[in-house]
Specification:
This protein has a seven-stranded mixed sheet. Strands 6-7 form a two-stranded antiparallel ribbon. It has a single domain, classed as Rossmann fold. The protein contains six helices and nine strands, in the order ααβαβαββαβββαββ. It has 212 residues and is of the alpha/beta class. The protein starts with a helix and ends with a strand.
């Protein structure tokens, strides 16, 4: 099966920046009370549901997986970039990390209690998002929790370098919260909460909690 160009570009780009990305963002959560609080809310939601594994899809170097594990979540990570997975395994040896694509997760139907997509849909083209959300719903058990974090707004740009000036070739998509929530509903989720975070005037993140 051929790999779509955007998947290949994402893999190569994040292989290139994996080490510098991990170094630059390793302590980012320590300085961001809002994002810690949002992840803490996700932990509380998970505790209110039947216990089970949680998939951190697009886990990068594993920093969010590590945060969740420290709070008692049975978490594992999946990322399309072998370079990122190698860093995650090195920095969080007690957590399982695997190479895989959110377009076709190597997980059984209904096998996880939660899915986290922490700014990992930002490179997925609009036309591919419904299929990815369908994958999330497929692997979630009934009543399972989903948290999606993304860049809020509208429009896309090509990112040609980042994380220390390394070359990249990925499209970064910003999306209105209403659009993401509508996609989730169309995929069969119930949207439970929509949150916005504005750490700077020109920067806006959004987080949608949903239930299968």
């Amino acid at each position: 099966m051929s790999v779509p160009d955007w998947v290949r570009d994402t893999r190569v780009s994040y292989d290139t920046v994996a080490v510098s990305y991990a170094d630059m963002l390793r302590d980012a959560l320590a300085g961001d009370a809002f994002q810690r609080g949002i992840l803490g809310l996700f932990v509380e939601v998970l505790r209110s549901r039947p216990a089970g594994p949680v998939a951190d899809v697009g886990c990068g170097p594993g920093r969010i997986s590590g945060f969740l594990r420290e709070r008692g979540v049975e978490v594992f990570g999946v990322d399309v970039s072998p370079g990122m997975v190698a860093v995650a395994r090195r920095e969080h040896p007690g957590i399982r990390f695997e190479v895989g694509s959110m377009t076709g997760l190597d997980l059984a139907d209904g096998s996880v209690a939660g899915v986290l997509a922490w700014f990992s849909l930002i490179h997925v083209p609009d036309g591919e998002v419904p299929g990815v959300l369908a994958e999330f719903r497929r692997v979630l058990r009934p009543g399972g929790a989903l948290l999606v974090g993304f860049h809020a707004g509208d429009g896309s740009r090509v990112k040609t370098e980042g994380y220390g000036g390394h070359p990249m070739n990925v499209v970064v998509h910003r999306r209105p919260v209403a659009r993401v929530s509508q996609w989730l509903r169309e995929a069969g989720f119930s949207v439970e909460a929509e949150l916005w975070h504005r750490p700077e005037p020109a920067v806006e993140g959004a987080f949608v909690f949903a239930n299968r």
